[in-house]
Amino acid sequence: MTIKLLAIGKTDNKNLSALIDDYKKRLGFYIKFSLEIIPDVKNSKNLSEEQQKQKEGELILKKLNPTDILVLLDENGKQLDSVGFSQYLQKHMNSGIKQLVFVIGGPYGFSEDIYNKANGKISLSKMTFSHQMIRLFFIEQLYRGFTILKNEPYHHR
């Protein structure tokens, strides 16, 4: 199985980018992982929230394969602790799917088309974080999840 994280817009902060790269490299020891950045929608200032979500949704859909399992990182999604998330990953790996795709949407969330296509939703917190910080938090939790599955000391139980 491979895991892909799709995110709208680039990471501007060099420190965050360095940390993201560090965890991406660490993840490579456990699973094939990729982070794919979808460029911000052009002329978004001239679009309504709905129009922007629609355009972002179209860009997200273009990045998906028909067999992908799509999971949205969404504030209204299911909340898991780190052990629960590792079990969630294991369940998907055991199911024989080819690719598990997680998506961080734009500033207004997801279009209805994306919600309809999604196989699930996960919330990382009830708090609100910047889209750039969520990338780091999510990739760190992926790494933590795999260390839990391998009984490695990174996650202290």
Automatic annotation (TrEMBL):
Subcellular location: Cytoplasm
EC number: 2.1.1.177
Top-level taxonomic group: Bacteria
Catalysed reactions, semicolon-separated: pseudouridine(1915) in 23S rRNA + S-adenosyl-L-methionine = N(3)-methylpseudouridine(1915) in 23S rRNA + S-adenosyl-L-homocysteine + H(+)
InterPro entries listed in its UniProt record: Alpha/beta_knot_MTases, RlmH-like, tRNA_m1G_MTases_N
Key words, A-Z: Cytoplasm, Methyltransferase, rRNA processing, S-adenosyl-L-methionine, Transferase
Amino-acid positions noted as binding S-adenosyl-L-methionine in the UniProt annotation, renumbered to this chain: 73, 105, 124-129
Function of the protein: Specifically methylates the pseudouridine at position 1915 (m3Psi1915) in 23S rRNA.
Stored PANTHER family: METHYLTRANSFERASE, RIBOSOMAL RNA LARGE SUBUNIT METHYLTRANSFERASE H
Family: Belongs to the RNA methyltransferase RlmH family.
Assembly with partners or alone: Homodimer.
Protein name per the record: Ribosomal RNA large subunit methyltransferase H
